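User: Reviewer 2 asked us to show a designed sequence for the structure in our supplementary figure. I'm pasting the C-alpha cells here. Could you produce the per-position amino acids so we can include them in the response letter?
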C-alpha cells in the first residue's frame, strides 16, 4: 500500500460540493431537485465582463502574467478598495489569486504548524478548519451564536487567544449564517488586539457589498493599527456572479507579500490572463447588474424568513448579509445532517446540514437564497410537507 503524508489524512472538504454532486445525480435520474445548497449566485456574469475576456483573448493575452497579477488588475483592486473602504493601498500589496481559497491556504499554511493555534469562526466556512488541521496546528473555534445575531463577540474572541495563537480568522458578512458583525463589536476587538501584537488576522470579506436593512460592512482595513499584520481576502466570485472564473484578490502586509508571491510561483504560477481583464471590467464597468442581483436577493431573503418561520418547530433569524439563511431546526427532533439528507432524498430539496460548518452548527441548516423566488417558495412548501409527515 502506498505511504502518504499524514497531513492529507487530516484534510477535510466542503460538503456543499458533495451535496451538489448528489443533487445533480438525482436530477439526471429525472427527479425534480431544487438546489438551495450551493453558495453561488444564480445570475449570469454581466455581459460587459464576458466581452472583456473575449477581447483579451482576441488581443493575444494568452501567456503567463506576473505571479502577483497584471498591474492593471491590481490597480483596479486599489481603486475598488478605496471606493468601498476609503483606504488607499499600494498595488504592490495586492495579489490576484485563482479564487478565494488560495488566500486561505496561503495564510493558514504561513502561520500553521504543530504547536500553533489558529482561531476560526464556528459555524464558519469549512475550509478554515480543514486547512488548519492540514498544517498540524490546533484549530480553536470562535463561537458564532444565534443569540448574538450570528455576529462574533469581541470579548469571547479575545478570551480564546493564548501565547500559542498565531492567526485569527474573521468573516463578516458571514457564511453560513448571513451574520454581520456591527462596527462597535469590531472596534472592541481591534482595541483588545493591542494586547496581542504577534497575532496575525485574516479577514474574509468576500461578501462585503452583500448587506441588507441598512447594515454596513466594516472592513478591517479601516483600522491602520492592524495593517502590519492584516490579510484581506476578497474577490469577484460573489459580487459579480463569477464563481466559475476562479478569480480573487488579497491584500497583504509588506512582510508577507513576497512570501505569498513565492507560493504562487511554486503552486499556480499565475492567474489566467483573460480572467484578469474580465476582473478589471467588473470593477470599472457599470454596477447595475450587481444592484439588480442584490435587490433580488433582498426580496428572496424576506420570503425565506417569513416562510421558514411559519414551518412547524422551525425558527429563522433574519440574515443581515450574504445570501444565506441559517434556520434553527432543533425542535424538529432531527439531527441537522440527517434532516438535510432526508430532504434531498425524499423531498427533492438540497440544503447543507449545519455540522458541515462546525460543531456549533448542529441544530441548524444552511439555506442559500441564490435561487429564484419561485423555486424558494416551492422548496419551502416541500420542507413543510416533509416535516408535517
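Assistant: Here is a per-position design you can include in the supplement:
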Amino acid at each position: 500500500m502506498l505511504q502518504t503524508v499524514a497531513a492529507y489524512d487530516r484534510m477535510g472538504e466542503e460538503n456543499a460540493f458533495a451535496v451538489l454532486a448528489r443533487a445533480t445525480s438525482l436530477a439526471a435520474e429525472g427527479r425534480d431537485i431544487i438546489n438551495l445548497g450551493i453558495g453561488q449566485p444564480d445570475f449570469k456574469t454581466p455581459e460587459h465582463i464576458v466581452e472583456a475576456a473575449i477581447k483579451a483573448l482576441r488581443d493575444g493575452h494568452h501567456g503567463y502574467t506576473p505571479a502577483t497579477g497584471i498591474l492593471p488588475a491590481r490597480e483596479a483592486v486599489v481603486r475598488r478598495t478605496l471606493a468601498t473602504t476609503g483606504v488607499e493601498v499600494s498595488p504592490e500589496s495586492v495579489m490576484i489569486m485563482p479564487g478565494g481559497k488560495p488566500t486561505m491556504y496561503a495564510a493558514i499554511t504561513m502561520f500553521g504548524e504543530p504547536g500553533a493555534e489558529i482561531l476560526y469562526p464556528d459555524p464558519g466556512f469549512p475550509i478554515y478548519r480543514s486547512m488548519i488541521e492540514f498544517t498540524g496546528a490546533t484549530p480553536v473555534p470562535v463561537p458564532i451564536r444565534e443569540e448574538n445575531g450570528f455576529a462574533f463577540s469581541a470579548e469571547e474572541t479575545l478570551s480564546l487567544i493564548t501565547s500559542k495563537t498565531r492567526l485569527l480568522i474573521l468573516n463578516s458578512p458571514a457564511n453560513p449564517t448571513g451574520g454581520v458583525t456591527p462596527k462597535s463589536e469590531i472596534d472592541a476587538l481591534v482595541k483588545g488586539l493591542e494586547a496581542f501584537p504577534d497575532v496575525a488576522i485574516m479577514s474574509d470579506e468576500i461578501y462585503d457589498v452583500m448587506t441588507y436593512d441598512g447594515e454596513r460592512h466594516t472592513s478591517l482595513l479601516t483600522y491602520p493599527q492592524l495593517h502590519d499584520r492584516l490579510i484581506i481576502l476578497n474577490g469577484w466570485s460573489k459580487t459579480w456572479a463569477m464563481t466559475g472564473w476562479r478569480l480573487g484578490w488579497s491584500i497583504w502586509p509588506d512582510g508577507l507579500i513576497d512570501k505569498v508571491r513565492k507560493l504562487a510561483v511554486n503552486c499556480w504560477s499565475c492567474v489566467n490572463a483573460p480572467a484578469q481583464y474580465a476582473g478589471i471590467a467588473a470593477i470599472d464597468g457599470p454596477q447595475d447588474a450587481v444592484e439588480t442581483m442584490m435587490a433580488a436577493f433582498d426580496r428572496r431573503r424576506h420570503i425565506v424568513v417569513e416562510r421558514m418561520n411559519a414551518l412547524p418547530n422551525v425558527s429563522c433569524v433574519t440574515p443581515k448579509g450574504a445570501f444565506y439563511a441559517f434556520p434553527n431546526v432543533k425542535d424538529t427532533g432531527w439531527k441537522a445532517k440527517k434532516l438535510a439528507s432526508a430532504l434531498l432524498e425524499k423531498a427533492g430539496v438540497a440544503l447543507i446540514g449545519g455540522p458541515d460548518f462546525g460543531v456549533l452548527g448542529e441544530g441548524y441548516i444552511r439555506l442559500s437564497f441564490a435561487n429564484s423566488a419561485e423555486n424558494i417558495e416551492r422548496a419551502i412548501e416541500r420542507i413543510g410537507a416533509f416535516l408535517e409527515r
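For the response letter, you might also mention the following. The chain has a mean pLDDT of 96. The first strand starts at residue 34 and ends at 35.
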